[in-house]
Amino acid sequence: MEFYRITISYCPEVHPILPCISTPQWRNWLAHGTYKTVVVSDAGVGDDGFEKHMDRLMELTEYMVKRIREQPDKFYLILEPELVNVCFWYIPTRLRKIAHSPAREQELGKMCPVLKARMMQSGTLMVGYQPDDRRPNYFRNIISSAAVTEQDVDFLLSEMDRLGHDL
User: Fold this and answer.
1) Which pTM does this prediction carry?
2) 44 in a domain, yes or no?
3) Distance between CA atoms of 122 and 125, rounded to whole angstroms?
4) Could you tell me the residue range of the domain that residue 97 belongs to?
5) Which of 27, 29, 76, 143 is the most exposed place for a label (fewest CB within 10 A)?
6) How many structural domains comprise the chain?
7) Nearest one of 147, 70, 138 to 108, comparing CA atoms
8) Which CATH number belongs to the domain containing residue 160 in this structure?
9) pLDDT digit string (tens) for 95-120?
10) Measured in Å, how far apart are the chain's first and last C-alpha atoms?
11) Residue 142, CA atoms < 13 Å, CB-side half-sphere
């Protein structure tokens, strides 16, 4: 199944032999030390090292979703993850016994900037937030580093609770 198409052309600024792919994508391959094993075929570009890296990021994303689901009083998963994006709300103590509703969502959305400021002031976390066309602000965590571990995910969730429980 083909999800995207890579145009084959000569791109000396990227690599003289490989298909024309974006410079950030090429740098990502280089960062994983796997550029020597890149295979170009009719099916596109493939690489075992990059595949293993992405598999690990997906495992960590699944782990984060599992941990969020294990704590439904503290976190509300908004959407099933898209690749390595996990969209959720943190639920402070005062809102934990209130049924989920549009009014509660508005309150949760107002807390995102406050909790983000606390994260930045403490210097322990930096998780982005944003609204969309159907919801107010929510947290959007992106796992992109090979250095992230399950312990880091656990720390992120517990630190959000520590910093935001009293909101």
Assistant:
1) 0.73
2) no
3) 8
4) 71-164
5) 27
6) 1
7) 138
8) 3.90.1150.170
9) 999 999 999 999 999 999 999 999 99
10) 46
11) 4
